[in-house]
């Protein structure tokens, strides 16, 4: 299992953070996920391809708020 932290630049709403958290937790390759809204961080424990997961997380974040940029933290 791999653990990564991503920066969610532009995350400005607790409701958006909760929605991203909920959607990422539903991904089959994700074992644990947590959005830290005050620090705009998403920590994920997962199995599989990191680049594919990053692409999926970016898609989820942008569907919640098109201004969010996901970066490896």
Describe the 3D structure.
With 73 residues, the chain is of the alpha+beta class. The protein has a single domain, classed as Alpha-Beta Plaits, CATH 3.30.70. It has 2 helices and 4 strands, in the order βαββαβ. It has helices spanning 14-25, 50-64; strands at residues 2-9, 30-36, 41-46, 69-72. Strands 2-3-1-4 form a 4-stranded antiparallel sheet. Strand 2 (30-36) and strand 3 form a beta hairpin. Helix 1 packs antiparallel against helix 2. The chain is globular, with a radius of gyration of 11 Å. The chain starts with a strand and ends with a strand. 23% of the residues are buried.
- Nearest-integer average pLDDT: 95
- Shape, please? globular
The percentage of residues in β strands lies in: 25-35%
Rg to the nearest angstrom? 11 Å
Tally of distinct domains: 1
Task: Report the end-to-end length measured between terminal Cα atoms.
Answer: 18 Å
Low-confidence stretches: none
Helical element count?
2
Supply the helix-strand structural class: alpha+beta
**Major β-sheet annotation:** 4 strands, antiparallel
Please give the order of strands in the largest beta sheet.
2-3-1-4
Q: What is the CATH class?
A: Alpha Beta
Q: How many DSSP E strands?
A: 4
* CATH architecture call: 2-Layer Sandwich
> Helices and strands, in N-to-C order?
EHEEHE
Q: What is the CATH topology? A: Alpha-Beta Plaits
The portion of residues assigned to helices is 25-40%
